[in-house]
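Please, structure for the following, as tokens.
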Amino acid sequence: MSLSRRQFLKWAGATGIGAVVFNGCTVPQEEIVVQSSLELPEDLVTGRDNYYATTAQNLGSSEGLLVRVMEGRAKKIEGNPDYPLNADPTGGSLGRHGLRTEALLQELYHPDRIKQPMVRTGKGGPFRRIGWPEALQRLQEILQSSDPAKTRLITPSLRGAIAKVASTFSESHGTKVLAFDPLGEAPLYKAISDVFGEDALPDFDIANAGTILSFGSDFLGTWGAPTHFSSGYGEFRQGKNRKHRGQLVHFEPRFSLTSAAADEWVYVNPGSEGLVAMAIAHVMIEDGKVDSTVVSKLTGGRGLNAYSGFRPGDVSESSGVPADRITRIARMFADEHNGPSLAIGGGSAGAHTNGSESLRAIYVLNHLAGTVNKTGGVILNSSSNITRIRPSSLKEWKSELELMRSGEVETILIKDANPVYGLPGELNAESSISKVSNLVSFSSFPDETTAIADLVLPGHTTLEEWGSDTPDPGPGYTSIGFQQPVVRRFRDTMSFGDVLLQVGKDLGLESALPWPTMRHVVRDEAKSFHQRNSGSVQALTFEEFWKKTLERGGWWDLKDRPASSTNVPRVPTLLPKPDFGSNTGSFPFTLVPFETVALGKGELAHLPWLQSTADPITTVAWQTWVEINPKTAESLGLKFENIVVVESSTGEYIQAAVYVNPACPPDIVGVPFGQGHKEFTSFASGRGANIFQVLRAAEDKSTGAFAWSATKVRLAKTNKRSKLPSLEGEVPAVQLDDQKIIGIVTLDSHH
């Protein structure tokens, strides 16, 4: 069949797969182009690029993307220079983007993608492929025969349009939503809410700060929005807006990427970060470097007495930080001649049983510095009506697993979440989930949880999907990113949101779910921003507004900023000690698990580009390693690449190769998340070790969140050794003047 331009546009518009070309900055501008069909339109110029703006909402914080598409195939991903979190401060034509963003192309074309719906033949039997009509019919029958109160909808953390559809479906159907994030961030969100009155993460004006104290938050590597923060950090280092470059002091038990970039890396005993923050506050108040009115509000009129017991000398032994060092850093932080001061906390600092209180003590420092909602400080965001589904706590997951074991859960619908892999081993999540009668997976890839599913309904990938997202951390003003499909679906998949909308209608939920498709949900969200008649896109008609927002990748309003915060928290008067469990004497090392810049928490381990990306500190790729101090290695008779057993008090253990790291403190053992998958495509399965299996199921006392850095371990030598794939040491250092750069070999001399 030959398609004319007009016929093709009409067809594409009816199917809702059209993509609107990017039309901004200095990227080549084209006419509005809708994604090509299997038979290309007769007037399509072959070999010519089109650029489409979209948003990635599966990378923690959202990123704005520009996707280069040629003849219907996505070829390259760049950052959207218009999008608030990706703008290049130097004014470049392409925005900055994260490492993980590039790999979305491999997600699209991955050879191990689930190609079409599958159903298991008998309990524990093999899968067989089915069509979507049968798949949707089976899903409808499962839901009609299940008690809604005994049905669970499990998703990752969600924001925007898909969160709206998922939460509306669950409410109207009477089904409980559980959100699974292996690490969660409940202590961080609680601290932010307590200290600033915010329901989302604020922006941190790193670019204009003079002194930054960072506690556990590897913001240049894996925490928050590294792409956005790294741009600000470059400006911070240049000192263009100040008389001198900024100073960064980073407190963390492990030597991370942010530790490496800091002016001063301060080792702090795990779980004592809040103590150090309280001691810094004590020095600032005692020196009279803080507004007395602010101190009175923070302390309820108690002043310095509220910080009694938190003098530097009082916390030095517990924290491992010398008193004089705390005092010096506190005075540097309080010195207004250094420029605005900023305190950031997160990551491992919030991953203890006292995580919420520690982070609260850290963020209060911004009130003492007087930089809340001011240049170089914490920039609050305007309230947003975007729907959010936040991670469920570990405490809640424990309760749900018990209900599954006892038969109180009949049906689970699970989308892009893998609790079998990511929950602590001692909880035995696979055994509990396997007892559920109906497990329906909406995963695009085989993983540990999908492997035990009864029905598999594969979804679209990021580049094939409609959606919306708001940055978290935000940019300090109202913004929303719009996600559009930039290519046709590559496999026989269906949007998770569209499935819920379809089955919702079949179940009689049309009044609660009135949208025909996810595209209509996103359009409805866009209408509310069009009505504001302000911001980055303004238009007389909604259709014009809709087209322009898709061209730019979203909508934002630089003028829509919140008023100065009136929230004044009370400082914690008591910081509980971190709990590492009983019998710690037999387990002398504190385990500090960490995310890598490539694999994150393991959800991206199926992408070979990321597997092959070397860790910036150790240069290791494709494997799990165990970081230990040289003295620790010597005392245990361990050498580089020796296989060692890492065992926790839970009785669980892993085996991995030793990486002797001089920057690793003697009492610390560092192990990365991400590897050890049993079922996660051919690129991840059977590779490395899963550190989640070793971790205690400890909870933050305030929120019930997973305290994933609260585990003690011991090490045992084996007689095995394994080569670590790393860049380090592969090329020997030589003096060029002593070596022939080019060797000439004759045929006669070559054997």
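Residues 631 and 679 are 37 Å apart (CA to CA). The chain has four domains: 5-109+463-493+515-554, 119-180+400-458, 187-379, 584-721.
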